[in-house]
User: Fold this.
Amino acid sequence: MKCVNCLILVAFFVLGAFANAQAATEVKMTGDVLMYGSYFSNRNFTGWNRAGKNTEDNFEVWQRIRVRTDFVANEAVKFRLGIKIIDTWGHGTFTAANPTSGIAIPTGAGGANNITSGVQIYLAYLQFKVPDTEVQVTAGLQDVNLPQSAMFSNSPVLAERVPALTVTAPLIPDTLSFVTGFIRLFDSNQTFDSTSTSYNWLTNEYRTHQADELDAYFLTLPITFDGFKATPWGMLAVAGRDADYYDYKNSTEIPPAGGTNFGETLFSAATMANGPGSHHKAGSWHNAQNLFYWVGSTFEVTTLDPIRFYGDVIYGAGAQNDVKSAQRHGWFMDVGAEYTGFDMVIPRVFGWWSSGEDKSSGNGSERMAYIRSNWGPGNSFLFDCTQEFTVGGDMNVSPVGSWGLGASLDKMSFVEKLTHRLSFFYLRGTNSARGLRLANIMTTATWGSEGNYVAMGHDLTDNESLVSLNFDTKYMIYENLAAVVETGWAHGQFQESVWGHKTYHRASNNGDNEWKVAFGFSYKF
Assistant:
């Protein structure tokens, strides 16, 4: 593995040297470095992983280095290559203590393909403008974030680095444009499908093709008027029954608290529970391919500036033409306001609501399906959102299937170069207790362990709640170098009848509390 790491680095620098030798090519390098220690206590409120089989290590020292190199031919053409190194001190050179599956990394036989090396190519795309137009084309491994209003970080449906082809073009200058694209999230078998699955006596041949891809197509239409912005958008995903949904994590970063997979975020409980013995595919689907779709819009109103309003509404559904128990659909909405008239602080208030599971598993799921959530207001360590220290920096609470209210005092500054952020949250589940209990029992029986579909603290019933407080501080030592402290506390109230005696009482013994303290440095160049 060290040889592989060396080859990646050598290839990277050879490309740079080659580009420098070309008179017509300009090389630009940017990047960022994080070095920090993280103390996280009582992850999942138990101190165990979601399956309840591993115990946490409270303190780790992380480092993440990202280098982005642009090979610029002219104003219209460039190629970007980004490498990323993530590891923990004391574990080994360029290796990660908690390896993960990448969103576009194929699985190996018999289980998840974990990235054991900390050296990764995380961006690799060609970008150019169509001659004599403002139409921009980007092809390759790139960031794709579905629209979301500025207060709420990124999308609860899809915000990730994925292999994609995207096209951006203005329609009405400074008023209306569009962004469209195709994403291949994964193709499980890659070039050749696995061994023959059936014999067609009419054509005297074996049927070898398998529906083992997850593809998506999206369109966004950003609209801007004086004092008002909106971005209506839509996305379609074609999900093949034979794809290995459970072998892929929903992040190219190291997932917090064990991470989630595509089965959890796309499927109903019945689909998860009725999979085949390999537990990799959507075997209970009657259709070889199922359509998932999402429609929504963002809203930002600044006509009353310095008072600003933000909001989003999303509806998503999938497998609607399959058996009833396989269907999944639901709503997600958020709204917020801020006041920007003060010099020393920006106060914000916000809330959200998402539909939750009903009492039955036979009629499918009433939670909105999603691919990769990166949503969260106020830098809350409840959600994977805007933390400075991204790796292992959040509790991995799902905003889907919950409602909540919060307030934040952002960009507080009383001393030059020193800023603070204080945020408070209260959230409660919208899921039926019986619905989550059935989902937990069904999927645990199939998979042999808890936490594969729903988990305590990640998902909440309508009788359960969380409160949290986080306080974050940043001091700019130099223009590009900051010392950062992130702290968080959360307290939960849970139901033993849903999660079981062992998990419930382990959390109770910890006071139903979860803690985080992280300190380190952020350098951007």
Observations:
- The two ends are 29 Å apart (CA to CA).
- DSSP finds six helices and 23 strands in the chain.
- Residues 2-20 form the longest helix (19 residues).
- The CA atoms of residues 496 and 504 lie 5 Å apart.
